[in-house]
Write a sequence for this structure.
């Protein structure tokens, strides 16, 4: 079958992208990234621009020279000297970046933050098809040796403590019968009992994916997540919500009257519902409730995920069942959320 002639339609040049196509590619790339990833990219690039501006006295332009990346590393990474640990960022510039809101506090960066900032700069060069200074042999070697130096000093990344069953119950006891208390109890149990959901997965939960299977029991279909970014149809997408988790969710739906849209919303003065919660609100709820319970300030939103994995291990739940709830596809990934405790029987062999 012959295609009709489309003489009135402009022809494309296969060796280059039209402006319309380039914009469409950019929009698809942006939509395919998670909200949190895009936010972290923007934050990293803003910091690069601010640092470059005050360090070199000029606006940043890509591609950056490799020497600028080397300077960035030594400005933000600590090294051992005869006088102790040191880094090269001048105190006046450091304080200026803090005062302008680009840094949280003076001093060197956490190693993970430094590595992420360089990865984002590398991605920016790749997307623009520019010469990538982050792939320069000197930059790669310095970054590798910096990682090793931190490891030799025993400076491990700080992970939040696991919110296991006992501290979780203490936190739930702070949730009263107010609308906000009912919401927080339902949110915490939804996040924990469905496999330790991430912040964005909790605040992105909608009624259309919630299915009732009993008076106070539900299943929630998690179609999209960090471990399933292509929205593949998998059996483990369905998360059961039973027992006190199902009861708490039913209490919230009854009290709030929510029948469609986002499950978890803001509660304003007077008990009025507002917009859907932001991912940061999950962190704030965990921290505020932990403080009310008199617990140490060691818990955050990620503690829900590590807490679920750790508690499952303590209660000897088969690893395959745990992974079906968390959504992990590799054993190494799920084991990374386990936090050893003093109750580990392997520590009592003698």
């Amino acid at each position: 079958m012959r295609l009709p002639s489309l003489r009135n339609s402009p022809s494309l040049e296969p060796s280059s992208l039209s402006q319309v196509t380039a914009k469409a590619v950019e929009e698809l790339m942006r939509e395919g990234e998670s909200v949190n990833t895009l936010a972290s990219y923007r934050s990293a690039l803003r910091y690069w621009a601010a640092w470059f501006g005050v360090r070199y006295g000029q606006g940043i332009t890509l591609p950056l020279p490799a020497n600028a990346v080397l300077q960035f590393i030594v400005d933000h990474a600590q090294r051992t000297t005869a006088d102790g640990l040191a880094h090269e960022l001048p105190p006046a510039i450091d304080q200026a970046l803090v005062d302008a809101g680009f840094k949280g506090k003076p001093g060197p960066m956490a190693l993970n933050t430094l590595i992420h900032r360089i990865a984002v700069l590398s991605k920016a060069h790749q997307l623009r098809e520019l010469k990538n200074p982050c792939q320069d042999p000197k930059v790669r070697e310095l970054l590798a040796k910096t990682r090793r130096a931190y490891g030799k000093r025993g400076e491990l990344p700080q992970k939040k403590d696991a919110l296991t069953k006992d501290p979780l119950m203490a936190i739930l006891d702070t949730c009263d019968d107010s609308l906000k208390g009912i919401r927080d109890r339902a949110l915490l149990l939804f996040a924990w009992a469905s496999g330790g959901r991430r912040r964005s997965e909790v605040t992105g939960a909608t009624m259309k994916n919630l299915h009732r299977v009993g008076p106070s029991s539900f299943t929630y279909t998690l179609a999209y997540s960090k471990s399933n970014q292509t929205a593949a149809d998998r059996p483990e997408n369905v998360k059961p919500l039973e027992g006190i988790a199902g009861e708490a969710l039913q209490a919230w739906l009854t009290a709030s009257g929510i029948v469609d849209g986002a499950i978890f919303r803001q509660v304003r003065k007077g008990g009025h519902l507002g917009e859907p919660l932001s991912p940061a609100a999950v962190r704030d709820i965990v921290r505020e409730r932990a403080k009310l319970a008199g617990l140490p300030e060691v818990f955050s939103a990620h503690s829900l995920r590590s807490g679920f994995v750790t508690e499952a291990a303590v209660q000897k739940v088969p690893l395959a069942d745990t992974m079906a709830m968390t959504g992990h596809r590799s054993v190494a990934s799920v084991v990374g959320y386990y936090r050893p405790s003093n109750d580990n029987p392997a520590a009592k062999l003698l």
